[in-house]
Amino acid sequence: MSTPKPFREVPHRGLITIAIMLATVMQVLDTTIANVALPSMVGDLGASADTINWVLTSYIVAAAIMTPVTGWLADRFGRKELFLTAVVGFVVFSMLCGVAWSLETMVLFRLMQGVFGAAIVPLSQTFLLDINPKERHGQAMAIWGAGIMVGPIIGPTLGGWLTESFNWRWVFFINLPIGIIAFLGMAAYLPNIARCVRGFDFFGFAMLSLGVGALQLMLDRGGDADWFSSAEIWIELGLAISGFWVFTIHVLSAENPFIDPKIFLDRNFATGLVFIFIIGVILLASLALLPPMLSTIFGYPTITTGVVMAPRGVGTMISMLVVGRIMHRIDARLLVMIGLGLTAQSLYTMSGFSPQMDNWLILTSGVIQGLGLGLVFVPLSTIAFATLDVRFRTDATALFSLVRNIGSSIGISIVSVMLVRNTQINHAELSAHINPFNPNLWAASPPAAVGDPAALSQIEGLVNQQSLMISYINDFKLMMVVTLVAFPLVFLLRKPQKASAAAPAAHID
User: Fold this and answer.
1) How far apart are CA 365 and CA 372, in angstroms?
2) Hey, do 1-200 and 263-499 end up sharing a CATH topology, with the first three levels equal?
3) How far is residue 357's CA from residue 469's CA, in Å, rounded to a whole number?
4) What is the pTM of this model?
5) Which of 117, 203, 321, 508 is deepest in the core (most CB within 10 A)?
């Protein structure tokens, strides 16, 4: 057993943290900020309503493929050098996205933006763990988690405001000042980490890229292609299964695989991957449901929707900042359980939504869910790496981000499919009762009962509204069940203070 190296205090830790978080928020915002600008891009780029979605798909697939290779790139070229290159490349291609003159150029620039942006989140988490002593990891993960989880919440609102006030191109131009400040701060103060050159397992990377890329493409394209009624989706599913299967066999049998399988022997990290997958499902799936619900059923404009959803982000930030300070006093596993309980409670409250309610129920459920997710995310991000050998840290943070993103994509796809299918089913069931033989119809609207077109049109609107509302409620109930199912996983986690100290700290020059 090797003797652990004492932690060496890093100068300008506060400035480094600010610079890292600026880069992180910039990248995380870009995953959602462009969504609301898509309708405005259609005319300028000569695209159609179907093809414009490739602006999102290209970014998601490129980022998913490049995320796992972050660890190898960091070891080969240096963490600091890779981080600075990622920020520069991300900002440059953001500017090119802002001046794109056709759909083809936009898709190309977004693809490259995803290639460079993939490393930013894993490296930000790695550096925050590196520059802080172990007793401050909870606070560091609280700051990091605030950027990761609040970014997607404010993204659509910020994107809508920029699009309405200026132009859709400002959705990308806004990255320039943020990127410059982040780059200068990191270039000046980010410590140099000793490199560890290792061979590149091209076959393993190719198989993992095939699996991840095909899966992300299937999840993103599924809704437009009508899922498994399309040959495209079946091909992508086959490629995803084949890629992951061959990659798994290769990792277990190869001498120097792309990802060392020993990383999965750490119980905390393996359980943390399952947890972060569930968090990805709940966080972004609920964020994908609420804006269209508020717009379609309640008639809220984009800015009002953002204001109503803002308390969710406030709740998340409050809980993260509080839990970062109390983690060394309270068992982190207890905090995770409390967070899961609050999240389940908020989803139960959301299952009671109705078109007749006011904003209060939306605000309170949002605050409770934000508090709950924050209580889960920070302890989880700390425990997952507490017992892991430091030499696996960069690979581990890349896998952590990848699994969270895959969970988000799967969650959004599932709730979107269920929303469409359940709306059709609910509409058919409710419409079956709209007939002249139903006394309730005579009591509610005699003109509709005798076939008045205007009255029937009004009834049809109510049926559509109720069908959609019931479908949203079913989705919220599903996410509540997923949250409750995650409870037993808490007992698989080990307390951080019992972690082995055998692994040496990362060497900071």
Assistant:
1) 10
2) yes
3) 12
4) 0.78
5) 117
Using alpha carbons, select from 352, 473, 362 the residue that is nearest to residue 423: 473
Examine the pLDDT at 453 and tell me if it is beyond 80. no
Q: Which two tokens stand for residue 11?
A: 């100068």
CA distance 353 to 471: 11
Radius of gyration of the chain (CA): 24
Give, for 496, the enclosing helix (H) or strand (E).
Answer: none
Position of tokens 């490393």?
119
The tens digit of pLDDT for each residue in 97-149 reads 988 888 888 889 988 998 998 889 888 888 888 888 877 777 888 788 778 77
What is the residue-wise DSSP string for 378-436?
Answer: HHHHHHHHHSS-GGGHHHHHHHHHHHHHHHHHHHHHHHHHHHHHHHHHHHHHHHTT-ST
Backbone phi, psi, residue 508, to 5°: -105, 120
State the chain's mean pLDDT as an integer: 81
Topology adopted by domain 263-499: Growth Hormone; Chain: A; (1.20.1250)
Indicate if the pLDDT at residue 490 is higher than 70.
yes
CB-based contact 339:187 (threshold 8 Å): no
Share of the chain above pLDDT 70, in %: 91
Q: Quick check: 491 and 264 in contact, CB under 8 A?
A: no
Residue range 252-257: average pLDDT? 80
Q: Confidence class of residue 84 from pLDDT cuts 50, 70 and 90?
A: very high
Distance of CA 390 to the CA centre of its chain: 25
Domain boundaries, the chain: 1-200, 204-257, 263-499
pLDDT > 70? residue 8: no
Cβ burial of 354 (10 Å; 0-12, 13-18, 19+) is exposed
Residues with Cβ within 8 Å of 138's Cβ and at least 6 positions away in sequence, in order, are: 323, 324, 325, 327, 328, 332, 378, 379, 382
CB 411 within 8 A of CB 91: no
Q: What is the pLDDT of residues 180-193, one digit of tens each?
A: 999 998 888 887 77
pLDDT at 395: 83
d(CA 397, CA 71): 8
Determine contact, residues 268/396, Cβ cutoff 8 Å. Answer: no
Contact (CB, 8 A) for 254 and 200: no
CATH number of the 1-200 domain: 1.20.1250.20
Which tokens in the block code for residue 209? 């890229």
Which of 343, 382, 336, 329 lies closest to 489 in space, CA to CA? 336
Average pLDDT over residues 253-264: 81
Place of tokens 């596993």: 333
3-state secondary structure of 508: strand
Q: Cα(251)–Cα(260) distance, rounded to whole angstroms?
A: 7
